[in-house]
From TrEMBL, chain A:
Carrier of the growing fatty acid chain in fatty acid biosynthesis. Residues 2-77 form the Carrier domain. GO terms for biological process: Kdo2-lipid A biosynthetic process; lipid A biosynthetic process. Belongs to the acyl carrier protein (ACP) family. This is Acyl carrier protein. One of its GO terms (molecular function) is acyl carrier activity. Pfam families: PP-binding (PF00550). Pathway: Glycolipid biosynthesis; KDO(2)-lipid A biosynthesis; Lipid metabolism; fatty acid biosynthesis. One of its GO terms (cellular component) is membrane. It is found in: Cytoplasm.
């Protein structure tokens, strides 16, 4: 697993207080991990802070799963 | 009841009559207070009188960069702001037909826009800590209107709508957002009124007296306390009964 994936998952686990084994790439923040709309905003802000990338609102709207977040950040940092 | 030990509060406009009373009472109840104002000497005098647990944060709220810096500095220096009292406000009164763009813009900028920007700086950390008390000092005229104060009333009514929206957005994070709407309060401003004006005002107040700063500070203490944790999106009117809304 890439370093980015590791760090993304850690943020999700810490922020949402969910079990690590639930945080798989296909997991939806809202449907599978119990996030509400504020959580998703806070997660995006946490990703921005951790990786020093800017995630515009329209991109943020398309980040629905853990895998989406990892892919976005990998692309932004490539 | 109403013990604020360990809490950190930022009060804007703490050199004004109301802001000072609020800051003093929150401090007396155990909070560490950040005192914002524009008059540095007055801030220093108040901070040294309060002694421990008081820090000053001079800033010009009509300067947007200053507002952002104020939020960042208060959050860092106080080690997290738990209680934000948006008290600072200005008036530029005049009849509407003669009101200039400048008088409108100044009042909206200081009373409403700076409150939005400062609150935005401090809300996210409150959400993260799962505790916050945002207290916005509005006015009875936000709800009743007042001739000669279209700009001021618009700014104060704006605070109420803002507070209700934000209260709904962040309630699940245990951050409450409420307003206090003072009526006529004894201050340097009301001290300038002549006897006839005073009589007319008192005639409209069932309690037949003006309010004191302490009346407003007590309301702020309540809304800042743990005990008020189930109160959000409300406007607490403290006006001797002059408007029952």
């Amino acid at each position: 697993m890439s370093d980015i994936a590791e760090r993304v998952k850690k943020i999700v686990i810490d922020h949402l207080g969910v079990d690590a084994d639930k945080v798989v790439e296909g997991a939806s923040f809202i449907d599978d991990l119990g996030a509400d709309s504020l959580d998703t905003v806070e997660l995006v802000m946490a990703f921005e802070e951790e990786f020093g990338v800017e995630i515009p609102d329209d991109a943020a709207d398309s980040i629905l799963t853990v895998g989406d977040a990892i892919k976005f950040i990998e692309k932004a940092q490539a | 009841m109403f013990d604020l030990t360990g809490r950190k509060a930022l009060v804007t406009g703490a050199t004004g009559g109301l802001g000072e009373e609020i800051a003093r009472l929150l401090h007396k109840q155990g909070a560490t207070v950040g005192l914002h104002g524009t008059r540095v000497e007055k801030l220093e005098a108040l901070a040294s009188e309060l002694g421990d647990r008081a820090t000053i944060f001079p800033a010009n709220l009509s300067d947007r960069a200053d507002v952002k810096a104020l939020g960042e500095k208060a959050e860092a220096d106080l080690g997290g702001v738990d209680i934000l009292v948006n008290n600072a406000g200005i008036t530029k009164d005049g009849l509407f037909v003669r009101m200039s763009d400048e008088d409108w813009d100044n009042v909206l900028e200081v009373n409403l826009t700076s409150m939005f920007r400062l609150t935005r700086e401090l809300t996210h950390p409150m959400m993260r800590r799962r505790f916050g008390r945002i207290i916005n000092i509005t006015s009875v005229v936000a709800v009743t209107g007042n001739p000669g104060q279209a700009n001021y009333c618009a700014s104060k009514a704006g605070m109420i709508g803002f507070s209700k929206s934000l209260a709904q957005e962040i309630a699940t994070r245990n951050v409450t957002v409420n307003c206090i709407a003072p009526g006529f309060i004894e201050s340097a401003m009301t001290g300038k009124l002549n006897e006839k004006q005073k009589e007319a005002i008192l005639g409209a107040i069932p309690m037949k007296r003006m309010g004191a700063g302490a009346d407003i500070a007590a309301a702020a203490l309540y809304l800042a306390s743990n005990e008020a944790g189930y109160v959000t999106g409300q406007t607490l009117h403290v006006n001797g009964g002059m408007a029952m809304i």
